[in-house]
Design a protein that fits this description.
Elements lengths: L1 H4 L10 H4 L13 E2 L2 E4 L3 H12 L4 E4 L15 E2 L7 H8 L1 H25 L6 E9 L2 H16 L4 E4 L10 E10 L2 H14 L3 E3 L4 E5 L5 E4 L4 E3 L2 E4 L12 H4 E12 L8 E4 L5 E8 L2 E12 L6 H16 L3 E13 L5 E4 L7 E5 L5 H17 L6 H4 L6 H24 L13 E7 L2 E7 L5 E5 L10 E3 L4 E3 L6 E2 L5 E3 L12
Parallel strand pairs: 1-11, 2-3, 2-12, 3-8, 5-14, 12-19
Antiparallel strand pairs: 4-7, 5-7, 6-7, 9-10, 10-11, 13-16, 13-17, 14-15, 15-16, 18-19, 20-21, 21-22, 23-24, 24-25, 25-26
Helix pairs in contact: 3-7, 3-10, 4-5, 4-6, 5-10
The structure holds flavin-adenine dinucleotide and FE2/S2 (inorganic) cluster.
The site of FE2/S2 (inorganic) cluster has 13 residues, from loops.
Length: 510
């Protein structure tokens, strides 16, 4: 397909967002410090929380394992919407109408907060109001869309049913949510970073939190053995690096999705779209130097599982070609997000007995609004301000049905991954690994991952994930070793690319 059409897949996955904003670099933490609030994670959650608290006069330190906004926030699609797929009928069924309404209102307040902040600070971040659509071509989902519409009516959500969308996609029905939005996430967050500095906040990059000692004055310990003594810790690290006895690893699962950025001779008709059924297809556009860039996303799957990564990009390319005809294939990138058992994020105290340690995670690929909700809720918890959403997101909630069934199924899967790779036999040897290729081999009786780079140099790692011991698999799209259990990802030399693991894979010698 790619060859026939002469579209060349960009060799390296780079999100469009990063290219168009330049960020200052921040130092590594090289001393012990004392602040009011230590915030771990430089994505939308950590930055918005640091911004809000520093504005209120709190002394904050924000630490980031890599570069700011290089995690999931830097690889998002950046729709700012309360239409989180088909969710409201399900929330009414499982949590009741009041909580479903709160969920909607929290997302809408987050959208409004972002809009107000843009206006207040006069931020040029390509914000545009758009209607959001979930569409289907499957009979099963037609009835789900009808039920979702009933939920919209119960919850006073403005929208309606439509029978067509302006693309060459066969559909049976779609549901529209009026007046949602999209933006450029890094252009929006850069002025918030500037404000943190202006408000005397501290920001450190290349600084990884490895553990927390809880207590009245909790201490964040970094991997280079420095201490951040504070009154509160906010874990905005996507997957919490300190779960306490909260068992987060068993209550969330990671899934990856892919995005391609392409140009077309057709002009974009407006709106933001996502399919109800799998494989998911998400569509929006943005303007780059006066030219429309179509962002096509989807093809998600559990991290570390599924078909070879490049095939996901090819599936999106094929979809783009048949849907609106591609002109040029400009970008590709991928990222992962976490889903909780009841699809509502965990925001609040990490466990009931550690009030000073807070967490925000599990946004199910809707973190522009959910991450902003988290920042607003956590700020209110820290400042002791009433917030009507606190109970909805409380991480210690447990809804026995249908959570329990999913809980058991998910953990059985993790258990399978824990032993599967260890028993697997392979006769592959290092000589069988071609250039820019990776394979799993047995080296001195142990499972080892071998990658031979474009210069012929071989990089060997122990494939046992340093988080909890599952076996990592090769991701040929991003050239990383990915763990199917809780989503940790490692570079070819074993360095951590994405947590919860905070130790590298062991390097092995031939
Ligand atoms: C493909 C894709 C498309 C998406 N599209 C949308 C969309 O259209 N709209 C929407 O609302 N949402 C979308 N999302 C979801 C959204 O992007 C995420 O939910 C959100 O960006 C998560 O933000 P975060 O701040 O929690 O995490 P991140 O942005 O990942 O930030 C966490 C940071 O913590 C750092 N970190 C981790 N561990 C440590 C440690 N131990 N010490 C120090 N630092 C650490 C990481 O390096 C990272 O930079 C999408 C997600 C994906 C995967
Ligand atoms: S075992 Fe948990 S991420 Fe690998």
């Amino acid at each position: 397909m790619t060859e026939e059409n002469n579209y060349h897949m960009p060799e390296t996955p780079e999100p469009y967002w990063r290219e168009s904003v330049s960020f200052p670099s921040f130092p590594k933490l090289e001393e012990d410090i004392t602040v009011d609030v230590g915030i771990v994670g430089g994505g939308i959650t950590g930055i918005t929380t640091a911004y809000l608290l520093s504005k209120k006069g709190y002394k904050v330190a924000l630490i980031e394992a890599g570069k700011l906004l290089n995690g999931t926030t830097g690889h998002t699609t950046a729709k700012v919407t309360a239409q989180h797929g088909l969710i409201y009928d399900e929330l009414i069924q499982h949590l009741g109408e009041d909580k479903a309404r709160l969920y909607y209102e929290a997302a809408m307040e987050a959208k409004q907060f972002i809009k107000d902040t843009i206006e207040e600070k006069n931020i040029a971040c390509d914000w545009s109001s758009e209607d959001a659509f979930v569409y289907t071509n499957s009979d099963k989902y037609v009835s789900k869309i009808d039920k979702e519409m009933e939920a919209y009516e119960k919850l006073d959500i403005k929208g309606g049913i439509v029978d067509d969308i302006p693309f060459n996609i066969p559909i049976k029905k779609a549901i529209k949510m009026d007046d949602q939005a999209q933006f450029h996430p890094l252009k929006y967050l850069k002025p918030l970073v500037d404000s943190i500095i202006e408000n005397d906040g501290l920001i450190y990059e290349n600084t990884t939190a490895s553990s927390v000692d809880s207590g009245d004055h909790p201490i964040i310990l970094t991997s280079n053995s420095h201490h951040i003594v504070c009154k509160r810790v906010v874990q905005a690290s996507h997957f919490p690096f300190h779960g306490g006895e909260g068992y987060y690893f068993a209550r969330m699962y990671p899934s990856r999705s892919y995005i391609v950025g392409v140009t077309s001779k057709e002009s974009y008709p407006g709106g933001m779209y996502i399919s109800a059924e799998k494989p998911t297809r998400s569509i929006r556009s943005t303007t780059v130097d006066g030219e429309e860039l179509w962002l096509i996303g989807g093809d998600g799957h559990r991290t570390g599982e599924g078909k070879p990564t490049l095939e996901h990009y090819q599936a999106l390319e094929q979809f783009a070609e048949t849907t609106f005809g591609m002109d040029e294939y400009k970008y590709r990138w991928s990222a992962q997000d976490l889903t909780t058992l009841d699809k509502v994020p965990y925001i609040g105290q990490v466990t009931d007995d550690q009030p000073e340690i807070l967490v925000a995670t599990g946004y199910r690929k809707w973190g522009m609004t959910n991450g902003t909700v988290a920042a607003l809720v956590l700020t209110d918890i820290i400042t002791g301000t009433d917030n009507r959403f606190i109970d909805l997101y409380k991480p210690s909630r447990f809804h026995a049905d249908p959570d329990l069934k999913k809980f058991n199924k998910y953990n059985a899967k993790v258990a399978k991954h824990l032993i599967k790779g260890k028993l697997e036999y392979t006769s592959t040897t290092i000589e069988d690994v071609g250039q820019d290729e990776a394979k799993v081999i047995r080296l001195n009786g142990n499972r080892a991952g071998v990658y031979r780079d474009k210069h012929g140099e071989v990089h060997i790692v122990d494939t046992t994930c340093t988080h909890m011991g599952c076996e990592v698999n090769w991701n040929n799209g991003d050239r990383t070793w990915d763990c199917p259990c809780h989503g940790s990802r490692f570079a070819i030399d074993g360095a951590v690319v994405e947590g919860p693991a905070n130790k590298p894979l062991k390097k092995l010698e031939e």
